[in-house]
Amino acid sequence: MAARSAETPAATPALYAELYDFLSAPISRTDCGRKCAPLNGGEPVCCSTGNAIPIAHKAEFALLKERTDLWHRFRPFDATSKKIVGELAHAYCAIECKGVAHCERDNRTLACRAFPFVPYVDRAGAFLGFTYFWEFEATCWVISNLTIVDRRFLKELVAAFEHLFAADPSEREACREHVASMRRIFTRQRRAVPVIGLDGALLRALPRTGKLVPARPTDFEKHGPYRSETAYKRAVKEAGGTLPPAPAGGYLAP
Questions:
Q1: Residue 119's beta-bridge partner residues?
Q2: Distant-in-sequence contacts of 236-243, Cβ < 8 A, 24+ apart
């Protein structure tokens, strides 16, 4: 659930405590969990290790164990989760909380607070904004609605990652490698990479060159069940979920 470098000697529990202090704003005024939960057994996609496994630096996990009993080591349950855990660098571990019903907002991981976003770091190592974990395009409502991201949330996220990169440059390199991989995948699909700039402007990184150019909301496609009201209602039914009475703007409206 996060781009991670091989080694981060500068990482300490104190550093993660500082990062947590930067991040308190919700991602949006809309409770995005209400959009995806009917498709996921009543739980938000990012709050279920069946969909997203939180990866934490061991220094971060040490901090969390000092602050709360909410978190424990994640136990792989299938071939995919075993592969994810098996490929982690030594400095990192997969962890799991007690579930959304027991969430302690002050004790969420950095991955939880930033989801679904990852810093967009270009080939030269410049931190230019945020893109997202593309694996969640079909499950995360936010990815299909990038304009809902709250400015205060973005400002806090920028400050937190600037602080992290200054303290631990290897994390910047990890994000650069993640973005490079994403650009390669999107180029093969002839797609631009969606980016939210540091100032909140919508941008797109062009295939092959990676050049950032201004974008409009209509430049970014909707994904999976979030393509239309009809697709969403059908997907909820197939998932065995339950929908409340339809709001005035429809189920997918912010």
A1: 130
A2: 236/38, 236/39, 239/38, 239/39, 239/40, 239/41, 240/41, 241/37, 241/38, 241/39, 241/40, 241/41, 241/42, 242/38, 243/38
Segment holding 14, helix H or strand E: helix 13-22
Hey, what are 70's tokens? 């909410």
Helix (H, G, I), strand (E, B) or coil at 106: helix
Q: Which two tokens stand for residue 251?
A: 């189920």
| 3-state helix vs strand vs coil in the chain, percent to 5 | 45, 15, 40
Q: Are strands 202-205 and 193-197 parallel, antiparallel or unpaired?
A: antiparallel
125 contacts 173 by C-beta, under 8 angstroms: yes
- Alpha-carbon distance of 114 to 20, in angstroms, equals 11
Task: Give the C-alpha separation, 132 to 163, whole Å.
Answer: 20
**Widest distance between CA atoms in the chain:** 52
pTM: 0.91
**Strand partners of residue 214:** 203
Rounded alpha-carbon distances, angstroms, from residue 209 to 21, 92, 214: 36, 32, 15
Cα–Cα distances (Å) from 134 to 1, 34, 130, 186, 225, in that order, read 11, 21, 12, 10, 15
Tell me if residue 231 falls in helix, strand or coil: helix
> What are 17-76's pLDDT values in tens digits?
999 999 999 999 999 999 999 999 999 999 988 888 999 999 999 999 999 999 999 999
Question: How many residues appear in the chain?
Answer: 254
